[in-house]
Automatic annotation (TrEMBL):
Family matches, as InterPro entries: Glycoamylase-like_cons_dom, TAT_signal, UCP028431
Family annotation (PROSITE patterns): TAT
Pfam (any one): Glycoamylase
Protein name, as recorded: Glycoamylase-like domain-containing protein
Glycoamylase-like domain sequence ranges: 228-435
Length: 450
């Protein structure tokens, strides 16, 4: 029996597990056949009584400053002062009783701390002390096995929470933040030493469990999860981290072991497994795929196409959900009025209801800047309740006047980090200074195209 956390979500369920367990047959059915999508309004079409929203009146740079400062505040305030572990989610007010951290949130947070130091949000000595504390906690207190860590941890002790899995993807997200901090604070010997040990400790071949691909995780009670990282999604960072490991690498030809299915929507053909938009964003936050390609694709351009297709998909739903317009579109895995859900498209996935998830546009800023920035400006200027002390809330539904009371670290993070990448290339340039990152891309067969 599944337990629920304080916000009613399934405890210990990752995005990837949620997508897998929901079942492709239900999640990928055509939206026209989902009759229950219109049930709230008693028909097949949502209310069209949506007043065109106002737009943000400042400059793009002013808005992105606000976004990054608010996001930084989340990662600073929602870290435990004794461990540095960062909550998986928090109330938009900043005051709640949540006690569970996620290691993915830690990875985004460590990178956010580097940005905060670069931009002078708070004194550098305080930021460096927080980075050291967080790394030391992960190395000496956080529950893990074979160098991997449990997805959810008690934020005050580092102990495993909710009987969750030892997560390969969340360990990878954490390590991307760890390695970003190692390079940005390269003059701090303690940070460099702690970060290097965390990366070198990971036994990547063990997570293969005798197979060619990596598994999604492991539990001490039942062993390895059946699911594997075997088709294109957010997986690229895992394989590159593993191939580039100086201590426990996997073979470079594992890069060719996962499939790259293509999908065509309104004349746009791109690699996609039908997953939500975040799968085209996460690896790109740290690894710089611009002007490079392997034997299969230019993955940066692929994410450009995926973002364009998602926008067109949203616009195709305008007759049913009148809020979806050229200046307001985008959803990816997030909370919803019914709890956490993995929704996306194309093809239609999940209980689509006209909701807007700002991280969908925020995480794609480098891919389709003008289109995504228009969305962020519209949300900031036209929907004041969708903005909080930590920037954009996780999700809202203009058609139902519903605003989610929470923010989630893995949605706050991509918007902040991709905003900084678009503005200064900072995360890309800092992370790619890691010799393991550049070497892994070379071993995987990447060539510069321009």
């Amino acid at each position: 029996m599944s337990k629920k956390d304080e916000s009613g979500n399934l405890q210990g369920v990752t995005r990837r597990e949620f997508i897998s367990s929901s079942g492709a047959a239900m999640m990928l059915v055509p939206i026209a056949s989902l009759s229950w999508l219109g049930s709230c309004s008693g028909g097949s079409k949502e209310s069209t009584a949506v007043t065109p929203p106002a737009s943000y009146t400042g400059t793009d740079e002013q808005l992105l400053d606000e976004v990054e400062k608010g996001s930084f505040q989340f990662f600073w305030e929602q870290a435990h002062p004794d461990t540095g572990l960062i909550k998986d989610r928090a109330k938009t007010s900043g005051s709640d009783n949540y006690t569970v951290a996620s290691i993915a949130s830690v990875g985004f947070g460590l990178t956010a701390l580097c940005i905060g130091d670069k931009r002078g949000y708070i004194p550098s000595d305080q930021i460096k002390a927080r980075v050291r504390l967080t790394l030391q906690t992960m190395l000496s207190k956080a529950d893990g096995h074979e160098g991997f860590f449990y997805h959810f941890l008690d934020w005050s002790t580092g102990k495993r929470a909710w009987n969750c899995e030892l997560s390969s993807i969340d360990t990878a997200l954490m390590l991307c933040g760890v390695l970003t901090a190692r390079q940005y604070f390269a003059s701090d010997a303690q940070i460099v030493d702690l970060a290097t040990k965390l990366y070198n400790n990971v036994n990547w071949p063990w997570m293969q469990n005798g197979g060619k691909t990596l598994t999604m995780g492991w539990k001490p009670e039942s062993g390895f999860l059946d699911a594997r990282w075997e088709h294109y999604c957010e997986l690229m960072m895992i394989y590159l981290l593993a191939i580039g490991s100086p201590t426990h690498p996997i073979a470079p030809d594992t890069w060719k072991a996962w499939t790259r299915p293509t999908y065509t929507y309104q004349g746009i053909t791109y690699i996609s497994s039908g997953d939500p938009l975040f799968t085209h964003q996460f690896s790109h936050i740290w690894y710089d795929f611009r002007n490079k390609r392997d034997d299969y694709a230019d993955y940066f351009d692929n994410s450009v196409k995926a973002t364009k297709a998602h926008k067109l998909f949203c616009l195709s739903l305008h007759d049913k959900f009148s809020d979806y317009t050229d200046s307001l579109w985008g959803f990816t895995a997030s909370d919803s009025m019914q709890g956490y859900t993995a929704w996306g498209g194309p093809p239609a996935m999940g209980p689509i209801d006209g909701s807007i998830v700002p991280a969908a546009a925020g995480g794609s800023l480098p891919f389709l800047y003008d289109d995504c920035m228009k969305v962020l400006r519209t949300v900031r200027g036209g929907y004041p309740n969708a903005w909080c002390r930590y920037g954009y809330i996780d999700v809202f539904n203009p058609l139902k006047n519903w605003y989610n009371p929470d923010v989630i670290g893995i949605d706050v993070g991509p918007t902040m980090l991709m905003a900084e990448n678009k503005r200064t290339n900072f995360v890309w340039e800092t992370f790619m200074k890691n010799p393991e990152a550049t070497r892994a891309m070379q071993l995987a067969g990447f060539k510069v195209t321009a």
